[in-house]
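Margin note: ligand = nicotinamide-adenine-dinucleotide.
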Amino acid sequence: QPLTVAVRSISFSPRQVTSDASFHSVSFSETDHPKVLITGGLGQLGVGLAKLLRMRYGKNNVILSDIRKPPNSVFHSGPFIYSDILDYKNLREIVVNNRITWLVHYSALLSAVGEANVALARSVNITGLHNILDIAAEHGLRLFVPSTIGAFGPTSPRNPTPDLCVQRPRTIYGVSKVHAELMGEYYHHRYGLDFRCLRYPGIISADSTPGGGTTDYAVQIFHDAIKTGKFECNLKPDTRLPMMYIDDCLRATLEVMEAPADTLSMRTYNINAMSFTPEELTQELQKQMPELEVSYEIDPVRQGIADSWPMNFDDSNARKDWGWKHDYDLPELVQTMLNYFREETRMARVN
Ligand SMILES: NC(=O)c1ccc[n+]([C@@H]2O[C@H](COP(=O)([O-])OP(=O)(O)OC[C@H]3O[C@@H](n4cnc5c(N)ncnc54)[C@H](O)[C@@H]3O)[C@@H](O)[C@H]2O)c1
Ligand SMILES: C[C@@H](O)[C@H](N)C(=O)O
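Resulting structure:
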C-alpha cells in the first residue's frame, strides 16, 4: 500500500519518463470498488457496459464519457461527462478529480468509417490511444482497450485464427488496433502498466446501434426484418465472420478486468462465441419469420474488408487462462434479439 501511495503521489508525466521509471497498478480491497471511466461510452457498447459495471460497483463508481450529447435516459442513469481523448489535459483532470482507478477505452472509429476518413481514424485511434496509455501509466490505472478480429489481415490464418500469428491488416482500423495491442503490451513489460485487451468479434445488440463497421449487417437485419420484412445485405451470402451477442462481450470484459493478474499468461486474447454467414443468419431468422426476404447489394469496401478477416476465431487461451465461456450461440442470439424487438413493438402499440 505505501508503495502504491508513493507511486501515485509522484508528479511526472510519462511524456517525460525516465529510463528506469516503473509504474504499478493501484490495488484495492473487495470493499473498495474500482472507480471506472469509460471513454467513447455513447457508442454501441459503452452504455451496456456502464449498466453492468454499475450493478457490480455502484452507480457513482462508473463514469461514462464521450464527445457527443447523451440522450436523456443515459444522462439520468448515472454520471456522464464530456471527454475528448485527443485532449490530454482534460483527460488528466478527469482522472485526478474523480480518483479514477480503471479506464475502459472504447473511443474509436470502426472499420468502414475509418476507411472513409483515414486522417480522423489515425488521430482518434492512434494519437488518442497514446494519450490514454500515458494517462493510465502516469496514474497507475488498470487499462482495458478492446481490439478486434479486424487486427488480422489477408495473410493471417483465417480458419481458425489463433492469438499469435501474422497480423498485417489492410484497414487503418486494423493497423491502429495492432498498434494498440503492441503499445499496451510494451507499456506493460516496460513500465508495469496493467494493460488488458480482448479482441472482440462483431458484436450484436438490440438496444444500441453499431458505429460504422463491417459486421453491422448482422444488427441491421433484425431492425429491417421487424420493420419491413425485407433486408438488403451489403456482404455476400457466404461471408463467414466471428460474431458475439453483446451480453457475452460485456461479461467477458468484466471477467478479464477482474481476473487475477497471475492467471493472465498474455495481455491480449481472442474471444469468440459463434461464426456465421449472412445466409445462415437469414435461415435462422426465417425459422421464425418465413416471410423474410433478403437481397444482396454488395458494398465493395466492406466486402474487401470482410474477405481479409478471420472466419473462425480460436479463443482457447482465454478459455484456459481465465475461464472464458460464451452463453449465446446462433439460435439463442436470434431468439433473444427477436424477443426484444417484438416486445418493443408490443409496447409501442400499447402506448
Ligand atoms: N462493436 C463491435 O462490433 C466491436 C467489435 C470489435 C471491437 N470493438 C471495439 O470496441 C470499442 C467500442 O466499440 P463501439 O461499437 O461501441 O464503437 P462506436 O463506434 O459505436 O462508438 C465509438 C464512440 O467513440 C466516440 N469518439 C469518437 N471520437 C472521440 C474522441 N475524440 N474522444 C472521445 N470519444 C470519441 C464516438 O462519439 C462514439 O460514441 C471500439 O474501440 C471498437 O473498436 C467493437
Ligand atoms: C468487428 C468490429 O471491429 C467492428 N464491428 C467492425 O466491423 O468494424
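The pocket of threonine (ligand 2) is lined by residues 110-111, 148-150, 173, 202, 210, 213-215 (CB under 6 Å).
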